[in-house]
Structure formats: C-alpha cells, structure tokens
Amino acid sequence: MTPRTSPNVTEQGSLVTVRHPSGSSCEIDKLGATVTSWRVQDRERLFVSRKAVRDGTKPIRGGIPLVFPQFGQGPLMPGQHGFARKLYWTYTGVARDDPTEVLVAFELKDSDATRSSGWAHAFKLTYVVTLGADTLGTHLAVTNTDKTPFKFTPLLHTYFATPDITEVRVHDLKSLNYTDKVREAQAYYEDRDAVTFDAEVDRIYHGAPNIIHLDVDPRTTILIKKNNLRDVVVWNPWADKAQEMADFADEEYKSMFCVEAGTVHEAVSLQPSQTWEAGQQLIIK
Ligand SMILES: O=P(O)(O)OC[C@H]1O[C@@H](O)[C@H](O)[C@@H](O)[C@@H]1O
C-alpha cells in the first residue's frame, strides 16, 4: 500500500515531522518510533538529552520512547525496557489529516532481532501519533499473530521538559500504593497532594487515575489522559544517577522529569489473533 502523504508531514532520513495549521509540530524518529519533539506555542514540551545518541546503537534518551514487550528488567525477557525502543519501525504514512488533527502511523513486526531477543513471539505493533493544536496523542495497538498467548508490560516513557525541576508538581496520585525502586522496591502509600522532586525518584504508582495533572512550572499545566494503561511511573535520576548515564548530561536532571503511563505492575495477556489497544493524550492547559 502506498503511504498516504500530506503537505503537513515530511519524511527525511529517519525523521517524520508533522505540522499543524495552528503552528504546533512534532517529530518522530523511526528509531523506536520515538516522539523526539512536541512544540506548542513556540515552546518545546518534551525533553531530549543533548547527549542522546541518535544513530541506533542505543535507545534515544528523551522524548517518548515506547517500552515493549517488557518494562524494566522483568521476567519476560533479558535486558531493560524491551526491544521496541531500539529498533527501526516502518513509517506507514498519514492516517488522517483534517483541520483539527494530523495522524501518522508506524508499524513493527517480529523479525530475527525480536525472535532472538528472548521474547520469541510473533506480533504486530501499530503506533499512531496524533497532533492537534495543543494536544499530542500516542496510541499503541498490539496484535498477537502467533499461535500461543503472550504477555507484555507496555509503557509510554514520556520525558517532559521543565525550566526548574523544583517547581514541578505531579498531581492525582494521592491515596495510591506505589513500589519505590529507590527503597528496595518495597510498597508504600502516597499521602501527598502532589509528588515533587528533591532527590532521585523512581516509583510505580499502581492503578493510577486516567487523568494526571502536571504542573511543569507555576504557570503551565499539562494533562495526561491515559486510556487502558493501569499504572504510572514517576522518574528523575537526580545528580548521582545522572553522572552514571553516558547519554545524559550531569545537570540535565534539573530540566526534565518522566511521568510514564503503562501497564507494568501486572502484565497484559493476549490470546492469538487478539488485539490490545491503549494510549495517552497530552493536553496543554
Ligand atoms: O536508562 P533507561 O533504561 O532508559 O531507564 C530509565 C529509567 O526508566 C524508568 O522507567 C525506570 O523506572 C527507571 O528505573 C530507569 O532508570
């Protein structure tokens, strides 16, 4: 099928750039189908490290890497955060372009690389990125094309940009249980109205509400509206961990934070021929 094109979408090398008539734009790298830029009102909303490696030798440090089939270092396969963020996806073209939204689609199927990864199932992933005037949607469909069921723990690893990490507030997580990876992966209860950052944070909030408000600075709120993703991971490496990461500059922990919608506490199970769908919409308020 010939990819559908639009004057609002350009493809150059591994980058697909989408422009909306309102002036907003986004950029997706076929490496991982990683959204690497989202600009609204002339302001970049996503964080990408200035030391990010963009040649395919490692996942892109920033934007929205897509974690599949495994979040973290789980039991499903060896390594961290699965293979989807490390592989080049196929750009399948413009799915829709109308005055309100522009949609572009990407696909990843099992290959020698995925079958030899330790998670050897046959699958098809379809990822649709939707740009509106002040919204960005990322929607994933997973189809089991195999003869047996499989499990996965998918996640949208969104890196948000902030002018000052100490002013960030992540709301709507109060009264949830969370696993704290910084404290021996023990379970805790969130009693604060907002999660803030003044040290390393690495938590999995279980069963989070579908709307999360983020104050990225005292005047700017972004809403995450998630769909069919149960949990929310909140992460900032802070100073010491930042120094350990080769593709992240030492001071960059001050200008980013991750709020990651996923189903990671318990895996999704998918039967042969079935499709599972989920996603998020980011909205500038
Ligand atoms: O360095 P990576 O593999 O991109 O992972 C970054 C972080 O991703 C988060 O989702 C994890 O909860 C953290 O534990 C991890 O450090």
UniProtKB/TrEMBL annotation:
- Pfam families the UniProt entry points to: Aldose_epim
* Cross-referenced Gene3D superfamilies: 2.70.98.10
Q: SUPFAM superfamilies in the record, alphabetically?
A: Galactose mutarotase-like (SSF74650)
Name the catalytic site residues: H157, E260
Q: Which reaction does it catalyse?
A: alpha-D-glucose 6-phosphate = beta-D-glucose 6-phosphate
Q: What is its EC number?
A: 5.1.3.15
Q: Which domain of life is it from?
A: Eukaryota
A single GO cellular-component term on record: cytoplasm
InterPro entries in UniProt: Aldose_1/G6P_1-epimerase, G6P_1-epimerase, Gal_mutarotase_sf_dom, GH-type_carb-bd
Give the GO terms filed under biological process for this record.
carbohydrate metabolic process
Listed GO molecular functions?
carbohydrate binding; glucose-6-phosphate 1-epimerase activity
Which positions does UniProt annotate for substrate binding?
R61, Q80, R85
Q: Which UniProt keywords apply?
A: Isomerase
Broad enzyme group:
isomerase
Q: What does this protein do?
A: Catalyzes the interconversion between the alpha and beta anomers from at least three hexose 6-phosphate sugars (Glc6P, Gal6P, and Man6P).
Indicate the family of this protein: Belongs to the glucose-6-phosphate 1-epimerase family.
The record's section on PANTHER family has: APOSPORY-ASSOCIATED PROTEIN C-RELATED, GLUCOSE-6-PHOSPHATE 1-EPIMERASE
Name of protein: Glucose-6-phosphate 1-epimerase
Query: Lineage, please?
Result: Eukaryota, Fungi, Fungi incertae sedis, Zoopagomycota, Kickxellomycotina
